[in-house]
């Protein structure tokens, strides 16, 4: 079963926990997911809306929730949350992402690809990114984890702004987006997962938190204005930013290989999100993050190219499920 089909079945199981007939009909599909994928989903068959319960059933339900009734806080209108398990039978422990959002990164991607800046707009975008790069390098030098953690707080902004702008455009114009809204929101979420991963390795100091608040205030508004004025310029700038992200993760990998940075065990969140082997290390994590950045680079240069050639994004299907 393809990953997309598996995702759909998993979603259906979660969204229709009360429909026993429906759930039974697709349980075979669930076992197929388990055979081919990594995770098992256990639907809460027979869970019922509180208002349709008999008093005895309501008592039993209350007993399940505990004497203090605190369990009810985590239920959605009386429907218990789905119980997800990994393939090895251990419970799925992340609320921030679910098994069907995990993936295996394509590390075969070309990490040296570069878009030649030929037009005035491209040169402006490239110059802007280079001007931002040098002070950043000077500030962080070889503090790679800190560098990555703080830059991911910025990297997760453009996808959300672009996705929001295309969403509003779709509503205003009564038209489809060609999947680009979803692709950009996927990018934003993927960047945020990079941040969540680095947070397991290093905690920001108060001064770094203050810096991030200030930078987000400036960058969000600047990128929002750029996207309003020229979406193709905005995507080109992100394409070049992602090229630099690939370069800085390549330097990170070199320092890990040289032993200048300790190659510590991979955080648990990274092992589950990228479906890495349990004995993975920081080097494996940086390798898959670099592959993600290379995909973002390609997606944003592609988005800019479409518009530079006089087309609209919706005319070309977005590379969905790409991250
Ligand atoms: Fe990132
Ligand atoms: Fe990125």
How would you summarize the topology of this molecule?
Layout: H1 3-15, H2 20-36, E1 39-42, H3 55-65, E2 83-86, H4 120-140, H5 144-173, H6 180-199, H7 206-229, H8 231-258, H9 268-273, H10 282-308
Antiparallel strand pairs: 1-2
Helix pairs in contact: 1-2, 4-8, 5-6, 5-7, 5-8, 7-8, 8-10
The structure holds fe (ii) ion (FE2) (2 copies).
One fe (ii) ion is lined by residues 152, 155, 191, 194, 245, 293.
Catalytic activity: 2 a ubiquinol + O2 = 2 a ubiquinone + 2 H2O
Binding site for Fe cation 2: 191, 242, 293, 296
Keywords: Electron transport, Iron, Membrane, Metal-binding, Mitochondrion, Mitochondrion inner membrane, Oxidoreductase, Respiratory chain, Transit peptide, Transmembrane, Transmembrane helix, Transport
Characterization of this structure:
By secondary structure, the chain is mainly alpha-helical. 61% of the residues lie in helices and 2% in strands. It contains 10 helices and 2 strands, in the order ααβαβααααααα. The protein has helices at residues 3-15, 20-36, 55-65, 120-140, 144-173, 180-199, 206-229, 231-258, 268-273, 282-308; strands spanning 39-42, 83-86. The protein has a two-stranded antiparallel sheet. Helix 1 packs antiparallel against helix 2 and helix 4 packs parallel to helix 8 (231-258). The chain is globular. The model is unreliable at 1-38 and 43-53 (pLDDT under 50). The chain binds fe (ii) ion (2 copies). The site of one fe (ii) ion (FE2) has 6 residues, from helix 5 and helix 6.
